[in-house]
């Protein structure tokens, strides 16, 4: 379905926009000849020759049935486009659907979030919007091409996921870094500590992704086993790990809601 429509990405050479473009092309959901990219310079970079690249965002809107907005939130007001009668998907943090509709004239607006993992087709991209079945299927196909996707009931939840899954590897990297630091301070060579933690998080991610048991189930399983890992998990819980994580995620969500000004 999605490869039969023309899709444009405004801001398609920025970090997130380029990642989405890569995911769309590598999945085959959008053919290169059906993809437009707009940026301020009109530079192609390493995009395939079949992709239409322009500095004229309005030209992209005229040519495309679906427009993905991936510009920095602070630059959104400077973007002058009339997107009436277009399906608009925004991955801009902090910019509401109401604001997007008022500024672009679009009446079919989706607010979504993705991450640079889209380039590897590993992003989780939640979205919300008041759409008919055909448009909802288009959104699901496009975002699903970059990993996995789910419709959520409101923009507040999109903002939560901006903190939870947007900053790849972000919070996961922070936890890995603390474990590496622990190992190094106990005499483990830095290169060995890094190798071990990269492998641990790779294996853990793959196991969690492919296992029917939920993460809290894995935790409880380890606690029930009552071994060395149980001792560590219980100590982390007693030290207030959940409160620390809550504080970090709350701060990220608050920044999401303030970032667009």
From TrEMBL:
<keyword id="KW-0560">Oxidoreductase</keyword>
<dbReference type="InterPro" id="IPR036291">
    <property type="entry name" value="NAD(P)-bd_dom_sf"/>
</dbReference>
<comment type="similarity">
    <text>Belongs to the pyrroline-5-carboxylate reductase family.</text>
</comment>
<dbReference type="InterPro" id="IPR028939">
    <property type="entry name" value="P5C_Rdtase_cat_N"/>
</dbReference>
<dbReference type="Pfam" id="PF14748">
    <property type="entry name" value="P5CR_dimer"/>
</dbReference>
<dbReference type="Pfam" id="PF03807">
    <property type="entry name" value="F420_oxidored"/>
</dbReference>
<feature type="domain" description="Pyrroline-5-carboxylate reductase dimerisation">
    <location>
        <begin position="155"/>
        <end position="257"/>
    </location>
</feature>
<dbReference type="InterPro" id="IPR029036">
    <property type="entry name" value="P5CR_dimer"/>
</dbReference>
<dbReference type="InterPro" id="IPR008927">
    <property type="entry name" value="6-PGluconate_DH-like_C_sf"/>
</dbReference>
<dbReference type="InterPro" id="IPR000304">
    <property type="entry name" value="Pyrroline-COOH_reductase"/>
</dbReference>
<feature type="domain" description="Pyrroline-5-carboxylate reductase catalytic N-terminal">
    <location>
        <begin position="6"/>
        <end position="94"/>
    </location>
</feature>
<keyword id="KW-0521">NADP</keyword>
<protein>
    <submittedName>
        <fullName>NAD(P)-binding domain-containing protein</fullName>
    </submittedName>
</protein>
């Amino acid at each position: 379905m999605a490869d039969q429509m023309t899709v444009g990405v405004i801001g398609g050479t920025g970090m997130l926009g380029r990642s989405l473009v890569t995911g769309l092309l590598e999945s085959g959901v959008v053919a290169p000849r059906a993809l437009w990219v707009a940026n301020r310079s009109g530079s192609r970079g390493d995009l395939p020759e079949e992709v239409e690249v322009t500095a004229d965002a309005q030209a992209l809107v005229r040519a495309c049935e679906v427009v993905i907005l991936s510009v920095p939130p602070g630059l959104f007001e400077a973007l002058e486009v009339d997107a009436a009668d277009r399906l608009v998907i925004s991955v801009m943090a902090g910019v509401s659907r109401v604001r997007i509709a008022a500024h672009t004239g679009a009446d079919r607006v989706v607010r979504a979030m993705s991450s640079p993992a889209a380039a590897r087709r590993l992003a989780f991209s939640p979205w919300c919007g008041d759409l008919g079945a055909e448009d909802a299927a288009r959104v699901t196909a496009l975002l699903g091409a970059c990993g996995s996707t789910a419709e959520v009931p409101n923009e507040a939840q999109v903002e939560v996921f901006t903190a939870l899954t947007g900053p790849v590897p972000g919070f996961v990297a922070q936890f890995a870094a603390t474990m590496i630091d622990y190992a190094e301070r106990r005499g483990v060579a830095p290169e060995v500590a890094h190798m071990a933690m990269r492998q641990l998080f790779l294996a853990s991610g793959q196991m969690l992704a492919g296992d029917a048991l939920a993460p809290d189930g894995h935790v409880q399983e380890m606690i029930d086993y009552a071994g060395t890992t149980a001792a560590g998990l219980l100590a982390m819980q007693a030290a207030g790990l959940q409160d620390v994580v809550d504080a970090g995620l709350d701060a990220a969500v608050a920044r999401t809601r303030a970032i667009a000004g």
